[in-house]
Amino acid sequence: MKFDTEVFISYAHLDNQGARQGHEWISDFHRALAIRVGQLLGKEPQIWRDPKLHGNDVFADTLIERLERVATLVSIVSPRYLKSEWTRRELEKFCQAAHQSGGLDIDNKARIFKVVKTPVARDLELPPLASLLGYEFFKIDPESGRPREFDDPDEKEYWIKIDDVAHDMCQLLEILESDRPPSAAGKKTVYLAETTLDMADEHAAIRRELLEHGYGVLPAQTLPLVESELVPFVRSEMARCNLSIHLVGKTYSLVPEGGMRSLLEVQDEVALERAEKGNFGRLVWIPPGLQIQDERQRKFIECLRLDPRIQHSTDLLETSLEDFKSTMHERLNQKPIETKSAARLKQMYLIFDRQDLETIGPWRDFLFEHFEVICSVFDGDEAEIRAYHEENLRLSDVVLIHYGAGSEIWLRRKLRELLKSSAYGRTEPFRAVGILVAPPCTPQKRVFKTHEAMIISQFDGFAAEPFAPFLNLAKAG
What we know:
16 helices
């Protein structure tokens, strides 16, 4: 694929009026991008934009012909850009030409670069811009919530964004101009999970670090905001990766339409699911000393810390960002983690009343030979205990309720909580649910029946044989 022009900048001319005296935003951007791309490519790039005032000008045939020979398009997104008929035509014609010259996406990289000068609502963006990750040339003021645009080419934040665009652009241009196949064999790809606005700078820094070291980074487009579309999309993206990275801040993220879990929680759960299939690792970073006010986010973080599956494929770090980067590179340089779902011990949640704490030992020890056993807890803050219980109901493969000193009312309440596990984010049924009817023997226990669980009677104390049907069911699922 050979092109006459590497980059075409599509913009609304109103946006070239800089807020500062003597500065033109588009002209400054053009100049800065040309400098940085030239430095990275080692040659002067061909970057072009139409300088004419469009007004009532006819959309020239010469412009259409030139767009057919352009490698990449930069869309300077703003409210005016979306309302301009001229920029709509430029975008449309470039897409048509791109489909005739290799497609809009090459090696998971889009040939359109969405540079967001002024934020606009996602549902107002033109296709295919709405699905692309953008380079935001603004920052949201945490106090007022208003965007502050980067309009000074001398400020550091401006050049960091220019550098991000230039690095991604040069990677794509090298692929387009080379004769090698798009995907480089053996090259590791990382899933960098979408996060919240308070972690935007750290997210950008990690992404920049990965790209500069030659790693592929997914997702290459924005996440779907509908639960039924989100989960399959994240699964398909992670299937192409060796590692996922999750940055967890103080803010609870958006809940997709039709779902009950946030974007962070969905991505985290799919990563754990992916790790069970082998050759995959998961890194979670929580900034040290994080002050959390949102109860939902506090609960999510506590669940991350307590999740027993963390030992199999995950490192959770609460350290400096630089230390986290070091760990990230160590993990990427390691051999793939072999964790096969079939070899992993199933997780059992053993639920019992506080009164049975001293007598549960024989059953717990026996079950530990067959499962990763997670037991009820009773010490600590009430909210933390509740969060721990709900997380176990969401994540465990098997549940066994020990019906000992607790009353039948207590038992029925626990069964109802199992039925509500989908409200805690559970998406699949339990492999097996059992009720261990243990001493003391009572008339109510002798006649107890339910269709909601398999009953294992142990009125005379622990015995291994009666567990056989339950163990077979749990292992067969």
